[in-house]
Design goal:
Helices cover 14% and strands 24% of the residues. It has 218 residues and is α+β, with helices and mostly antiparallel strands. It has 2 domains: 92 residues, no CATH class; 93 residues, SH3 type barrels (Roll). The strands form 3 sheets. It has a 5-stranded antiparallel beta sheet, with no helix packed on it. Strands 1-2 form a two-stranded antiparallel sheet.
């Protein structure tokens, strides 16, 4: 609630702010408007990445400017009715989050021989890709082409780990068959279109790095 109050204070510097509760005595609460528009709200599982979970209240708030529940009175009757109209149309729904990259924690590692600490965390890899980059893995086997697109979440030896927008691992794939589609912007967008026209970036190795099959994922 503290951050919400701060947000209201900042917004009021730009324009008038109208606050609405879920249910209001005048019938113009977000829940009442949502029901009038026929928008169902998912309340049992807040983790679902669907408009029914995250977007319907925002739609109701935006619609409150165009539809209102108002009293009326005629010579023979009185009551309340809805004034105005809103047409609900399909729209693109995206969930935007930050890539779940583990920060470097060299101080937690136990020094090995010669006082060298094993690498852990960080955003870099010994390849052209960096963690959070959108990567395309492409290979051809038995006349069939296999394509996997995901976000770089780590590496083990010569393989990159690719994950989906929820940061669930899709698998480990050879770096030699991967190319960078888009650099890490600090945001991960579920269901986003992939910029397949991006030119491939040449692969390289950082000097002084040895790749081995037993290298742990970092």
């Amino acid at each position: 609630m503290h951050r919400q109050a701060f947000l209201f204070e900042e917004l009021e510097k730009l324009a008038p702010v109208i606050k609405r509760e879920g249910w209001q005595k005048d019938g113009n609460g977000t829940s009442q408007i949502r029901k009038h528009l026929g928008l169902a709200k998912e309340k049992s599982n807040k983790a679902l990445q669907t408009p029914e979970t995250h977007a319907v209240d925002a739609i109701a708030l935006a619609s409150s400017y165009f539809v209102k529940f108002r009293p009326f009175q005629t010579a023979k009757t009185h009551g309340h009715h809805w004034v105005g109209a809103v047409e609900i149309s399909p729209a693109i729904f995206k969930v935007i989050s930050k890539p779940r990259i583990t920060r470097r924690r060299l101080h937690d590692a136990v020094p090995a021989k010669a006082g060298v600490r094993e690498r852990y965390g960080g955003s870099t890899t010994p390849f052209a890709a960096r963690k959070g980059d959108l990567i395309e893995y492409k290979t051809r086997s038995k006349g069939e082409t296999k394509i996997v697109i995901g976000y770089c979440s780590g590496y083990t030896g010569n393989n990159l780990s690719l994950s989906d927008a929820n940061w669930s691992r899709l698998g480990r794939f050879a770096d030699s068959k991967c190319r960078v589609l888009a650099r890490n912007t600090g945001l991960v967008i579920s269901g986003a279109s992939n910029p397949v026209t991006t030119a491939p970036i040449p692969h390289h190795r950082q000097s002084g790095y040895r790749c081995g099959g037993s290298t742990p994922e970092v």
